[in-house]
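new request in #modeling-help
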Amino acid sequence: MTSPRTLAEKVWDDHLVAKGENGNPDLIYIDLHLVHEVTSPQAFDGLRLANRPVRRLDLTIATEDHNTPTINIDKQIADETSRIQIETLRKNAAEFGVRIHSLGDIEQGIVHVVGPQLGLTMPGITVVCGDSHTSTHGAFGAMAFGIGTSEVEHVLATQTLPLKPFKTMAINVEGTLRSGVTAKDIILAVIAKIGTNGGQGYVLEYRGSAIRALSMEGRMTICNMSIEAGARAGMVAPDQTTYDYLQGRPHAPQGTDWETAVAYWNTLATDEGATFDAEVFLDANDLEPFVTWGTNPGQGVSLSDVVPSPGDFSDAGERAAAERALEYMDLTPGTPLKEVPVDAVFMGSCTNSRIEDLRQFASIVRGRKKAEGVRVMVVPGSARVRLEAEAEGLDKIFEEFGAEWRFAGCSMCLGMNPDQLSPGERCASTSNRNFEGRQGKGGRTHLVSPLVAAATAVRGTLSSPSDLEGGN
Amino acid sequence: MDKFTRVTGIVVPLRRNAVDTDQIIPAVFLKRVTKTGFDDALFANWRNDPEFVLNQPEFKGAKVLIAGSDFGTGSSREHAVWALRDYGFEAVLSPKFADIFRGNSGKQGLLTGVISEADCEKLWNAVEANPGIEITVDLPSQTATVGDLSVSFDIDEYTKWRLLEGLDDIALTLRDEQAITDFEAKRPAWLPQTIPARQS
């Protein structure tokens, strides 16, 4: 009789190749390795230098996302570094035999959108990628985390990673979200509550009725930002919502395999009586649309609040950070956030660029015109999401609204491609990081949900759908 | 990774403390896509100065660096180790190394030996009195010898073992390859497979 275990502990135990002794790490098997152009070149070069092959090509898949342009995708990439990184990935994939979906391919897109869309991301598996937002895949009940380039090489060569066990933290979100409040608001509120280091050393498990009620897209949004709370991974136990999303996708189990898989997946949820190393509680009933005012994702408040004052923080470090952030963001304490005007709205990124996100954005901007002088960019997470949106006519809604409808990629989330803010520009962004200069040197980022991004694009100041004339 | 037992070669005295990884390799070189070819990037900003020690002809082809305290602080970039290795350095001696840099070095076959401040000064003096002189750094006995001067250096047992055996992280894991293969044999067939590609 084994003692009650959490979801994370079960997945860990089922991937244990060798138990570490004398304080050494465990050796953990990796079921799925996602590869992109930024963190893989030196990993492949390392294999080449040591004359090592990729151990499991059938568990490895590559796509191009960080550097890809979102317009004129048939033209040569202008920036030399971007072009070289993409060309290098293509050469490496060809040389080693890795499946790749390049710019222009129907399966190309942000790596964390592509995996789930193909049905490769499944409950109970281990997923790694040289990108910190790999935590996204935890929405399926997978253990998924970002790794560095040396670890990318290690996984390519051995399909394993030496890892020390994580601690577990339950994030309990109970209640019913009000209209206009979404998964993005939950995760921004969680990060504001536990801080950007609150999850360090933990795997987070999101639990409770509010999480169960979310779609897979919503769960992915939440798990995606686990890293912004300092946790390498976040998970949600698989349930019927997970299975409904997965069934019929190209790489999902089929026929009797499906039955076998579901039977196993049903054993993964945290056992009754299992204990977490830490627990956090959040009331979903009280939650309002959230927005960040500072330069880390923990510096957020309800949209109906005012810009905080450094004096509001008792901790000296937080106070100093707030002072710096307010200066960078050019915000005055006491200003209602809804009076803050923006120059740009970015709808996209691995946090919020799936079809449901685009539908939410469209539901607000449909039949409206964007505020004058505001640049609005809508960037789908993958080529397939783009096609799906066009099949539903969303592209027309965006274009009539005055937004730019782009091709798939990471785009203005981090501005490795030409999609960047200019110095001093202020942006309401559905992405995941509001760090100084993240979206372009001197750019100012407010993290928001797709609904808030849309309402903000309509009014020109930070807004929620309930602020719009005629409602939502 | 090659096994490391001992190295004999020209030794360079770098009389500077707190050499951070931005000095070892400036950020502008991080855009490259290979693990090699960083030899020109090593100390790139300092090498613009003709007086800089690496620009002196006596030290051409050096294999060992003796640096001041707190070598390798700052950014965790592994490129710092690549640059030192590509230039030809096989060992660095210093009274103190930054932790991450030291970890990165051990994984990539660059020996980092900790010497006392007093021995560091003695080694610098000995080399500066006779530029171009060779040093022998012997790992099994943990000694560095220049002419008549012999000093001992510290290195942790685990890293020493890895260097002597020539084990990088991957080689270390592949010692468990049978366990990996056994694990793979038991994986259910319905787990995700990227190949052959199935389209939606």
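bot summary: The beta strands of chain B are 6-14, 64-67, 91-94, 111-114, 134-138, 143-146, 149-152.
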